Amino acid sequence: MNQAIHSAIREDVLRRIRSGEWPLGSRIPDEKTLAVHYGCARGTVNRALRALAEEGVVVRRRKGGTRVRTAPVRQARLAIPIIREQVETLGGEYAHEVLTRRIAPPPKAARAILGSPEKALYLETVHRGDGAPFAFERRWINVDAIPEAANRRFERMSSNEWLVKTVPLSGGDLTFRAVNAVGRVAKALAAAEGAALFALERTTRLEEVVITTVQIYYREGYRMQSHL
Amino acid sequence: MNQAIHSAIREDVLRRIRSGEWPLGSRIPDEKTLAVHYGCARGTVNRALRALAEEGVVVRRRKGGTRVRTAPVRQARLAIPIIREQVETLGGEYAHEVLTRRIAPPPKAARAILGSPEKALYLETVHRGDGAPFAFERRWINVDAIPEAANRRFERMSSNEWLVKTVPLSGGDLTFRAVNAVGRVAKALAAAEGAALFALERTTRLEEVVITTVQIYYREGYRMQSHL
DNA sequence: CAGTGGTCTAGACCACTCC
DNA sequence: GAGTGGTCTAGACCACTGT
Q1: Do residues B139 and B157 touch, judged by C-beta distance below 8 A?
Q2: Phi, psi at residue B13, to the nearest 5°?
Q3: Nearest to B123 by CA among B109, B106, B145
Q4: Are the C-beta atoms of residues A115 and A140 closer than 8 Å to each other?
């Protein structure tokens, strides 16, 4: 059982919505009324309903009251792990190898994303689990924003991991797509030419400044899992 | 500016962490101290720190205090939209077509997921935007759990949308992967044989009962976007 | 204008867990 | 045992916004 009253209220409200007692789009009783009903303080009801609003279940408006969303938002939370942890979670021994590392003028696409620096640090890295390729990444790092990165070789700690520890709590965009394996990517992953690969593109920002942009290609058959 | 004090405190704490004033793994002052520092009630500080804990930025323990996570969780929120809305957001005119609809004994894999019913409703649907294929789905619906589904043809409203409205707020699992287009899937999407397709698998549950399991294959070049 | 949620307070008791 | 967060309360004032 949930000991906390606010948590129990949240679940009771959810139950009523699911049961059809409070249909999609309908207005539910106001906080004061519910507080009397549940025999608690208004603040406790407020906390429960605020949680449901954050989850996208209800919409709250002053004077307008609290309504069940007509199309409740289905949102999934994806944890974006460090690749080393992904490999280790699967029971493999992690290793990574930097295939390419150079400071160079970025190509047009990367240049635009990075904010048009003259030069940036380019890395190609393959991540392995028990020797077998797990993922291949191409990364551009904005050395104007993170000068320290220019002195790192990323041999002991991957750039992936170093950046997470050095530039914590940054925001960014994330894109998933499927691509056919070709050329160096196929080779690095030991994948058949043309195989369907799961790819992730991430651009990381700290206070609006782009730190790094990376494309990660996972081995054939990789699945990214989540729950609703 | 953020008017709310709890929100301002949350941002100030974030700023201190990012600036290095409170390094990863370090302990930050307790609620009472912070309340004095910010000149507010303890409850207000509590709300700010609780929010940061939910976001995965800090870890809180009674007596242990509040610490900055050593490896802050990077989590993305993915909104899982109804396909019709995806198409319409992209500016296309939505249409869908049910290619197959039958009640049949599910194959072994689907059967296990659905909880071993004798029969289930099978649907193959193609979703189009401005006439061009956008996504192709294969779905099994547990008619034991949702008997009403057996009477629906899903011609006006897609099964996708009908289920969202009929069985709101259900939970479930979600898997993303990349697959090569073959056979009927390639044909339905007018994709080249072997093209890399982004695929989504979803199993929906309500109170532990599996309602439906679906595989959705998106057209070539589809990207799923999110942000950190 | 008046109803509703948003926020804050000052205080209280409790549960956990580190020392 | 004692420090810290978790939760709850009763009340207050305010900011929106529907009527």
Answers
A1: no
A2: -65, -45
A3: B106
A4: no
Token readout for B206 is 């309500």
Which residues in window 145-204 of B are less than 7 A from strand D by Cβ?
Answer: none
Window 40-69 of chain A: CB closer than 7 A to strand C: 42-43, 46, 49-50, 53, 60-66
Dist. CA B44–CA B13, nearest whole Å: 13
Whole-number Å distance between alpha carbons of B17 and A169 = 9
Burial of residue A62 (number of CB atoms within 10 Å: 0-12, 13-18, 19+): exposed
DSSP 8-class letter at A34: H
| Residues of A with Cβ-Cβ distance to B136 under 8 angstroms | none
Judge contact between B29 and B49, C-beta under 8 A.
Answer: no
Angle at A133 between CA A128 and CA A135, to 5 degrees: 85
Query: What tens digit of pLDDT does each residue of A114-150 get?
Result: 998 999 999 999 999 999 999 999 999 999 999 999 9
Sign of CA dihedral B178, B180, B186, B192: positive
Q: What is the pLDDT along chain B (228 residues), one digit of tens a residue?
A: 568 999 999 999 999 999 999 999 999 999 999 999 999 999 999 999 999 999 999 999 999 999 999 887 788 888 888 899 899 999 999 999 999 999 999 999 999 999 989 999 999 999 999 999 999 999 999 999 999 999 999 999 999 999 988 888 888 999 999 999 999 999 999 999 999 999 999 999 988 899 999 999 999 999 999 888
Phi/psi of residue A36, each to 5°? Answer: -65, -45
Three-class secondary structure of residue A75 per DSSP: strand
Q: Which of A3, A13, A106, A5 is nearest to A55 (CA)?
A: A13
For residue B89, give Cα distances in angstroms to A82, B93, B181.
Answer: 32, 10, 25
- Residues (pLDDT < 50) of chain A are none
pTM, entire model: 0.89
CA B4 remoteness from chain centre: 30
Query: Can you tell me the distance from the alpha carbon of B139 to that of B122, in angstroms, rounded to the nearest whole number?
Result: 6
CA distance A149 to chain B (A): 17
* Cα–Cα distance, B13 to A221 (Å, whole number): 41
> pLDDT at position A3, please?
81
